[in-house]
Amino acid sequence: MGFEKLTERLKNPENAGQEPKAFIYQLPEQIAERLTPAEKEALEKLTKVSDYVQALSESHENEHRFFETLPEDQVQEMAKLNPEVISKWTFVEAKGDQIITVPYNQKFTDLNKKVSEILRSIPKIKQQGNYRLPPAIRFQTLAEGFTSNAWQYAEKTWLDEPWQARGVEFIIGPIETHLDGYKGAFQAVVGVIDEEATREMTDTIIAASKLQHKKQISKIDVRVIHLVANAGLGLKLGFNAQALPNDPKMVEKYGSRIVFYANLFEQTFDEKLLPIIQRVFEKNVVERFSNGSHKLLRSAALKWLAMHEESHPMNQEPGLEEKLGKFFNTFHELHCDVSALYLSSLLREHNLISSDEFEAILLTHFARKLNDIFISEFEEGGKSNPYAEGSKMEFNYMASMVDFIPESGELDLERESEIIQKINDLMGIFNYFAASQDVAREEIEALFKKYAEMGHYKFAASKLRDLYIKNDNSYASTVSVPV
Ligand SMILES: [Zn+2]
Fold first, then answer.
1. 258 CA distance to ligand 1 centroid (A)?
2. What is the torsion angle, in degrees rounded to the nearest 10, for the CA atoms of residue 243, residue 236, residue 62 and residue 177?
3. Residue 355: other Cβ atoms inside 10 A
4. Cα 199 to averaged position of ligand 1 atoms, centre (Å)
């Protein structure tokens, strides 16, 4: 399919219900017109790859049911006998009375083979320094992942690349374990780096990271991408950004690369965050932020996202993931949300942001919490995901401690210092849980459960229902918010 065909497909989306397809987006004119023929070819082929990744992702989701109802202790017992059981890249199956593991590349072999063939056919260009097309080794190592299950090399070659890259970018593979806490879920994001937005975002991230007192990350590299194709887990959960690698040891060695999906962020803000703020909070609060197409709210939401993402490497304590098992994602994502709030309160205390801006960050933060919760309630039939579980906990914790989102929707910033104090307290609890050897997983889970079960968020359900459920009762769009 040519690049022109890609544009054609965008204008005439094919009927749903046929072969799984990646979600396609239009590139901004000023970015599209700078593409070279080789880049266009690479984007077309990576889009085709994304279609197959969508198919793989759907097939995997049906296969990975093994751990769903299994208590954590049993999983750990099984892993002692066979460490492959908790490998990121195996299926676990019962065969007679035996438990066996099957590597990813040995299932859905047709799809894996097709992907790897396309990756190997992408034009190879010799380039040094700042590339516009990723070096050939990236396509080769990624193809290896699909055919031989050697996924570790693809991420390493990506991290070895020069920082401050330009041009085509992609993140493809079974990277995040949000499926069930253990198994890598397939994703594909393909797009083009926006150099100017990248520079601006880098400045924001550096300003916030200077204020925090935790460990410093050796290197933070930022990339803002305009997506062309999106498939798999990130599409399902609506990732707005990702901070990689996930392994704390690799972060120590390579630093952290934070990738923002610019067009997804904008879409999320317009379709979810802003409507939630407008419906949930008091009219005069919302009114005060309506200047210049809600410019202050939009930039607050972006800053929050930046601070959440840069918190990922800072909060990745060695051994934490092993200790928490499948509960890790719930805990760690919320830890990063709380860190984003905490960093904003530090910015406020140092007068680096105004009271208005701090309030705007709080509004977007609670809009994100409610969005996480109601995606699960309305789009996933109440089935919990790590974001929803954590967001219920935190929303209820804050509401019960400060009582600052009463049902009137009033956010009482007269109590700013009290709110900042509560944010500090919550941050203290999370840092302690993450770093202390003395706290057992069960204790942390119990605290989450206690707060998650309170119903403080429920007042918003009737106000937000139609954002998620269309009149015809079909599920709403795929756009959601977790990061
Ligand atoms: Zn996150």
1. 10
2. 10
3. 11
4. 21
Strands annotated E in 43-194: 90-95, 98-103, 168-176, 185-193
In tens, the pLDDT along 322-347 reads 889 889 999 999 999 999 999 998 88
Average pLDDT of the residues of the chain:
85
CA–centroid distance, 240 to ligand 1, in Å, is 9
Tens digit of each residue's pLDDT (9 = 90 or more) over 298-314? 989 988 998 998 898 88
| Cβ proximity of 243 and 256 under 8 Å | yes
Quote the ligand 1 centre to 420 CA distance (angstroms): 22
11 CA to middle of ligand 1, Å? 32
Long-range pairs of 164-167 with CB within 8 A, sequence gap ≥ 24? 164/130, 164/198, 164/221, 165/130, 165/131, 165/134, 165/193, 165/223, 166/130, 166/131, 166/132, 166/193, 166/195, 167/39, 167/131, 167/132, 167/133, 167/192, 167/193
Sequence spans of domains, the chain: 1-193, 263-483
pLDDT bin (cut points 50, 70, 90) of residue 472 is very low
CA 329 / ligand 1 centre spacing (Å): 9
CA of 244 to the centre of ligand 1 (A): 10
Distance 309 CA to ligand 1 centre (A): 6
Closest to 453 measured CA to CA, from 405, 389, 383:
389
Ligand 1 centroid–CA 410 distance in Å is 28
In Å, how far are 82, 96, 147, 185 from 100, measured between CA atoms?
9, 10, 20, 19
Q: How far is the CA of 308 from the centre of ligand 1 (A)?
A: 6
Instruction: Report pTM.
Output: 0.84
CA of 125 to the centre of ligand 1 (A): 34
CATH topology for 1-193 is: Fructose-1,6-Bisphosphatase; Chain A, domain 1 (3.30.540)
What the block records as the tokens of 164 is: 């401050």
The confidence score (pLDDT) of residue 386 equals: 82
